Amino acid sequence: MTDKKLKVLMLGWEFPPLLTGGLGPACYGLAKALSTKVELTLIIPRTDPTHLTEKFNLLGLNQVDLDKLAQEKQKSKKAFEEIAKEVEYIEATFDPYPFELTPEEKPQTENTPSLLRPKQYTISQAWVNLDLQIPKIPPKQAQKYFEDTENYGPEIMEKVQAYTEVVTHLAMDKDFDIIHAHDWITFPAGIEIKKRVKKPLVVHVHSLETDRVVNPYARNKVYEIEQKGMQFADWVFPVSHFTKDNIVKYYGIQPDKIFPIHNSIAPQKKQPAPKNSNGTKTVMFMGRVTRQKGPEFLVDTAQRLLQKMDNVRFLVVGVGDCLRETMFLAKEKGVSDKMQFMGFLNREKIDELLCGTDVYFMPSVSEPFGLSALEAAQFQIPVLLSSQSGVSEVLPNALKADFWDTDKFANYLYALLNYQGLYQDLTALIQQDLQKSTWEKAAEKVVYYYQKLEETYFK
Amino acid sequence: MTAICFYFQVHQPFRVKDFRFHQIGEDPVHEYEALNQQILQKVAEKCYLPSNYLVSQLIQKFQNEFKITYSFSGVVLEQIELYEPLLLESFQSMVASGSIELLSETYYHSLSSIASPGEFERQIHKHRDKIQSLFQYTPKVFRNTELIYNNDIATHVNHLGFQGILCEGLGKYLSEKGPNHLYQSPTGLKVLPRNYQLSDDIAFRYSSPQWEGPTLSAEQFIKILEAEAEKGAETINLYMDYETFGEHHSRTSGIFDFFSKLIHLLIEHNDFEFRTPQELVQSFTPIASYDVPTLTSWADEERDLSAWTGNHMQEEALRKLYELAPQVIATKNDSLIESWSKLQTSDHLYYMSTKLKEDGEVHAYFRPFSSPYDAYITFMNIVANLKLQVEGYLTYKKAFKKGFRAQ
Asked: Which residues form the Starch synthase catalytic domain (chain A) (predicted)?
């Protein structure tokens, strides 16, 4: 047990550099830290071949050219082997693949990839169990899903199904001890694999549907998948105690199998330039402009603050379905001249803005973690968070208030922007907080739980 | 004979209310009256009243053989007058018995000794007047806020005509004979160092697991005192908060019985007698010079000023408050001067400490805010508010005078 490295099959969805939220970086950070401690294989819907990965096998399904595989197989074994060299274990997973089909299951024409045709195998059972009314995927469509640069989008359910089916087949031939699935999109695959190979399943919860729709009583397909995944899982790793509490409260999962693993952040290489303390102060809000992130509380706080001080501007970085509403609200409250909506920005631009930011403000209504607060803290920026956030658990030296308490938020902003002593102490102390929470520690914790699970599972 | 000198500090600050930035320039009231009343009454019920009862009984029983010393801040006396008048009567009758010595200190329990010499003197005089009016008593020995001490403070106190001063007995400044003797400052003021080991055995470690029984027992403590006496101790100075009895250590811990038993055993003992600071400075000869160039105090592990000036917030708060001094004094307005003075109480700065570990826990125990940041922000908002009040008042006064002249 001690010498042997555990083999872990990790199922992810977002992965750098294609990101829509915190899931990608968190997944990457954890996988990287884990890669020295366990034998890790990671399966994700797509990878950018130019993005170098480190010590773990990263298999992007978009790199598995399904069409080509199917066709080439028909033509010559040699051609297939060439492809197999590119993607290491395809050859080994030959059997579960649909191009090894019984005669009646053979593609109608040679050009039709039959990979995901429901008739061909019965993986879709997972969906039947979950009672999900999802249209079956047209064959040509599957490849497209994996190549889509939009991680979610309206066809998300179909993408998830495609992912589930392919991944399950890939997994059948892999050697692993534990399945580790990140967020609901990979839960069906996790469940399906667990059913087949009888290996323990760990699900990692980066966010919950109840957070995203800002309704603790949300009951929809996604909620059902999340609940099912957590019920099926042997252990659940939420990203915070805050999320654990929500899982217990709103999903009815037993608390003694839930172990919070806090996210972390890789140390920042470049040192931010010192800010000039004179002139206009900058408060930054970054993230999807959705109800979950509490943009209306941002506007309300701004209005309160601007009644007492003038030399401050609010930057809103990000887009989302509440963007227009927030803009209107800002106009209505008479703060639109002090609030700049920057839209979606790339990393470089964000870093540049962070260099000139005085306070990072996150009034989220329900934030499972909130990785962007750690990013801001790396830029020596004091952060103001809602108490309803997981990141506040690792930043004891961040200022916190309940998301609805805009008067308190404004009071904190006023103090941060006017009282130098607070600013100095907080920026220094928050660096200490950052140093205390590392991916290394998170990975150690994860491995500890893996081992405990392994010990109990095969008794 | 070894002298035993017990001194108890009685102090409660005027705590301030949650003062938000939008109240700056709008709200003249800073105090959280309900909380102050509630805490004073709670502490009176748990500590002051039962302790006074016990001490009164001991005084009655042993007459002049039993003597102890108190120091009251002016702000706690104000609160006692307001919220617990019976408690004041109890203290008055104890002082009238003659077995009690009272010490001098700054009225507002402030850090004025390090921030403003003029303010320091003003508060000492204000405190003297208060003690005289309530107890018909004039203190002769001085103790500074939280035993803050260095050579300069000793010199200043000497100039003010005091016979002696109390301070923390720090090994590196004491002679090899230790704290159990009378010392003298370089400028000739008698110095009574605190035996912090033994004082904290009662004040902090009374219920700690290090003792044979569940708590420290009177018999055990007598043995410790005997050991000190054998080593030639002239006086063992035990200084602590009065709240040690019943508040920091609850009644159920047996702290009252411990104290009562200890006093009985000491009275019966042939080697010990009770002495007060004034008696000590008059009867003993200083054995050495107590030369302290840096600031020391009885607080926290460091026993320096870091409990009140240990971070940027505290430094800024202290600076901002005392920057207002000339303007506030210039108003000659009692109410504004009073508001400003109450903010000088050291507790406000103490709440802003960001220390961790054991000391951090002690700071948090006393803090009426959820974090040091809240304590600081509230304080800074109030100082900003006071500044506006003072400026407004001065402008008004000037305009009034001008108008008066024009007529």
From this structure: 7-58
Q: What is the mean pLDDT of residues B151-178?
A: 95
Q: For position A83, what pLDDT does the model report? A: 21
Query: A165-179: string of b/e by CB count within 10 Å (b at 16+)?
Result: bbbbbbbeebebbbb
Q: Which of B330, B332, B368 is nearest to B352 (CA)?
A: B368
Structure tokens at A399: 């200022």
- Rounded to 5 degrees, what are φ and ψ at A396? -60, -20
Question: For A44-95, what is each residue's pLDDT tens digit?
Answer: 765 444 343 444 555 555 555 545 444 433 432 332 222 222 222 222 222 2
| Distance from the Cα of residue B166 to its chain's centroid | 11
Is residue B27 within 8 angstroms of chain A, CB to CB? no
Q: Are B285 and B348 in contact (CB under 8 A)?
A: no
Of A288, A292, A316, the residue nearest A367 (C-alpha): A292
Q: Which of B178, B183, B189 is nearest to B287 (CA)?
A: B183
Assess contact for B292 and B151: CB atoms under 8 A: yes
- What b/e sequence results for B154-177 when a residue is b if at least 16 CB atoms lie within 10 Å of its CB, and e otherwise? bebbbeeebbbbbbbbbeebbeee
Burial zone of B35 (CB within 10 Å; 0-12 exposed, 13-18 middle, 19+ buried):
middle
State the DSSP H helix or E strand holding residue B386, giving kind and residue range, or none if neither. Answer: helix B372-406
Q: Return d(Cα B14, Cα B35) in angstroms, integer.
A: 9
B295 to chain A, any CB pair closer than 8 A? The answer is: no
Q: What is the pLDDT of residue B85?
A: 95
pTM given for the model: 0.84
Query: DSSP 3-state assignment of A424?
Result: helix
Pairing between β-strand A281-286 and β-strand A359-362 as defined by DSSP bridges: parallel
Q: How many CB atoms lie within 10 A of CB B340?
A: 25
pLDDT of residue A141: 58
Degrees (nearest 5) of the Cα angle A154, A159, A161?
Answer: 125
Backbone angles phi, psi at A191, to 5 degrees: -60, -45
- CATH class assigned to B2-283: alpha beta
Largest CA distance in chain A: 78
SS (H, E, C) B112-167: HHHHCHHHHHHHHHHHHHHHHHHHCCCCCEEECHHHCECHHHHHHHHHCCCCEEEE
Q: What is the largest CA-CA distance in chain B?
A: 82
- In this predicted model, what pLDDT tens digit does every residue of B305-316 receive, in sequence order? 999 999 999 999
pLDDT in tens, B108-140: 999 999 999 999 999 999 999 999 999 999 999
**What is the distance between the alpha carbons of residues B235 and B284, in angstroms, rounded to a whole number?**
9
Q: For residue B338, indicate whether it is catalytic.
A: no
A419/B313 Cα distance (integer angstroms): 8
Q: Which of A73-82, A92-101, A382-391, A408-417 shows the lowest mean pLDDT across its residues?
A: A92-101
Decide if B20 touches A, using CB distance below 8 A.
Answer: yes
Q: Do A425 and B315 touch (CB under 8 A)?
A: no
* Distance (Å, whole) CA A297 – CA B223: 64
Contacts of residue A434, Cβ cutoff 8 Å, sequence gap at least 6: A265, A374, A377, A378
Tell if the CB–CB gap between B24 and A308 is shorter than 8 Å. yes
Angular region, A83: left φ>0, alpha ψ -120 to 50, beta rest: alpha
Structure-token match 């997994």, residue found: A171
Residue A15 C-alpha, separation from nearest chain B C-alpha, in angstroms? 38
pLDDT at A278: 62
User: What H or E segment, with its residue span, contains residue B190?
Assistant: strand B190-194
* β pairing state of B183-184 and B190-194: antiparallel
* Alpha-carbon distances of A45 from A150, A188, A229, rounded to whole Å: 11, 14, 19
DSSP letter, residue A119:
G
